[in-house]
């Protein structure tokens, strides 16, 4: 074999060698970044230590934030699983992408960012929770949870993988990571990749991994200051919801207050349907872990606020234990990327489909435009463009994710995408551009249905929140977020806020025009596609 350094090579003019060197550097500079879009279901900033939460430590999520950027004002535009996912994929609001509620079916023929990246040469994958009730499009490989109407099971979950149904043995959070690493191992290494890595956890009914069962049994978590909220000064929406820890959490499905013997006497019970998926040794551990809880409850000496506090502790113990496996598996994936030398070449995003109530206002679940569930976690690591330890208070929304990915990939952002690229913020240490939006827009449609949260829309600015509840009621709420961050004091209609109120209503109307939500009260066309009978814990 001829030696690479032939005489002709050695005689190349210095200028030519410099040109080769410059071209090589140029190719390295324009390399498209890989993208890993990590998303969980119902994970909230209160349960992340990088957001200052005091409930749990999340070291691997914290690593992404510490080595990248943390967004403090990122908001879901429709705080519900399927609608949020549709908004993320399309970069469009629910009234534009057609997926307004969880009774919808996603029209996969429409434009999505994975399709655009795939067309631009990316190798694409979707692994984990999809929950859009249609076959994924725009992916070279997909493996999505299919059990419980695509909600998925924690134990021995069913998957729909590239058109085939399979059952995997093990715990869902671990399995989804295994599948993600397998995709990365077998990928075409000549192409950049975009992988959507989406966990089921920590969604209801909060079943921890075997290694974490009972891990918080002896932990007492701090209660939120408004756990016993009486909704004074607020309207029917807060009072008529069906998502309270006191009344809505079920003894069997949610609190696990059912023995194996009792489940075997009623094998139609929903808890048994997921319990039976566990291996017998895990069932034995489960029984041991929950025996004390069952015995404590059945003493019957818990009443009133003491019972609410007790239920809150059980809820936290299960919810937070499922988060532990999520954080561990993020660590696994980061370590794998580091091992193969792709960590710093990859934009790593961690978010959730929305936030979640952890006892605030006495609630669990999401749906409301109130801060705990409208606000989403958003942390991003990409050292080639993002300064480590950055934070941003720019008003951002989940419709911004698609244009951000396209922008970093060097792909033209279609004019019909309604979100805005976050790249100008990311490359400028989190600073808000002078011409950035003044408000996040929100619109929730799913009523009457699970949890009875009334339809509403509104805007969130840096300092205020304005909400209009409509359909079966006509009520307004406004909150001074600086003076009242827990949203306990509705100031709509108060004289001292009259000027601000007028300005916010005008801004709301302008925002609706901008995003083409021309019939927000659904007077001409009802957009909700379901009813109470169809909606089961989705």
TrEMBL record:
Gene3D superfamilies: Alkaline Phosphatase, subunit A. Residues 359-514 form the N-sulphoglucosamine sulphohydrolase C-terminal domain. Keywords: Hydrolase. Pfam families: SGSH_C (PF16347). Signal peptide: none annotated. Transmembrane segments: none annotated. Residues 511-538 are annotated as: Disordered. Residues 513-538 have a biased composition (Basic and acidic residues). It comes from the Bacteria. Belongs to the sulfatase family. This is Sulfatase.
């Amino acid at each position: 074999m001829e030696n690479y350094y032939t005489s002709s090579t050695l005689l190349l003019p210095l200028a030519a060698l410099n040109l080769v060197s410059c071209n090589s550097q140029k190719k390295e500079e324009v390399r498209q970044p890989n993208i890993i879009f990590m998303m969980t279901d119902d994970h909230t900033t209160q349960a992340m230590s990088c957001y200052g939460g005091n409930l749990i430590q999340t070291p691997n999520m914290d690593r992404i934030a510490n080595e990248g950027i943390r967004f403090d004002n990122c908001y879901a535009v429709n705080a519900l699983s399927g609608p949020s996912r549709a908004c993320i994929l399309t970069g469009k609001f629910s009234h534009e992408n057609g997926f307004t509620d969880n009774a919808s079916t996603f029209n996969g023929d429409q434009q999505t960012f994975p399709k655009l990246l795939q067309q631009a040469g990316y190798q694409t994958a979707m692994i984990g929770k999809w929950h859009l009730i249609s076959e994924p499009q725009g992916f070279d490989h997909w493996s999505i949870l299919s059990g419980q109407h695509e909600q998925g099971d924690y134990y021995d979950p069913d998957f729909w993988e590239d058109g085939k149904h399979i059952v995997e043995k093990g715990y869902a959070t671990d399995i989804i990571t295994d599948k993600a690493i397998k995709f990365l191992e077998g990928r075409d290494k000549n192409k950049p990749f975009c992988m959507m890595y989406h966990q089921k956890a920590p969604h209801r009914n909060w079943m921890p991994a075997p290694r974490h069962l009972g891990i918080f049994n002896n932990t007492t978590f701090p209660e939120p200051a408004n756990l016993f909220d009486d909704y004074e000064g607020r309207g029917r929406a807060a009072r008529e919801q069906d998502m309270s820890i006191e009344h809505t959490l079920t003894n069997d499905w949610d609190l696990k207050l059912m023995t194996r013997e009792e489940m075997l006497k009623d094998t139609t019970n929903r808890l048994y349907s997921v319990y039976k998926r566990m291996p017998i040794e895990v069932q034995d551990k489960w029984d041991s872990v929950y025996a004390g809880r069952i015995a404590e409850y059945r003493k019957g000496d818990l009443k009133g606020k003491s019972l609410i506090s007790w239920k809150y502790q059980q809820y936290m113990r299960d919810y937070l234990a499922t988060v532990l496996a999520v954080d561990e598996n993020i660590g696994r994936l980061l370590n794998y990327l580091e091992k193969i030398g792709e960590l710093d070449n990859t934009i790593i995003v961690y978010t959730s489909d929305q936030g979640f109530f952890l006892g605030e206002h006495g609630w669990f679940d999401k749906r409301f435009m109130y801060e705990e569930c409208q606000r989403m976690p958003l942390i991003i690591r990409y050292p080639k463009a993002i300064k480590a330890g950055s934070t941003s208070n720019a008003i951002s929304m989940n419709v911004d994710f698609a244009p951000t990915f396209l922008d970093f990939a060097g792909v033209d952002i279609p004019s019909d995408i309604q979100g805005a690229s976050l790249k100008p913020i990311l490359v400028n240490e989190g600073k808000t551009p002078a011409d950035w939006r003044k408000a996040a827009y929100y619109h929730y449609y799913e009523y009457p249905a699970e949890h009875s949260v009334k339809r509403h829309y509104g805007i969130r600015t840096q300092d205020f929140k304005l909400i209009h509840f409509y359909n079966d009621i006509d009520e307004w709420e406004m909150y001074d977020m600086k003076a009242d961050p827990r949203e306990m004091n509705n100031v709509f209609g108060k004289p001292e806020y009259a000027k601000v109120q007028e300005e916010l209503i005008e801004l709301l109307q302008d925002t609706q025009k901008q995003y083409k939500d021309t019939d927000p009260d659904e007077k001409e066309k009802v957009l909700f596609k379901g009813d109470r009978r169809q909606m089961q814990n989705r």
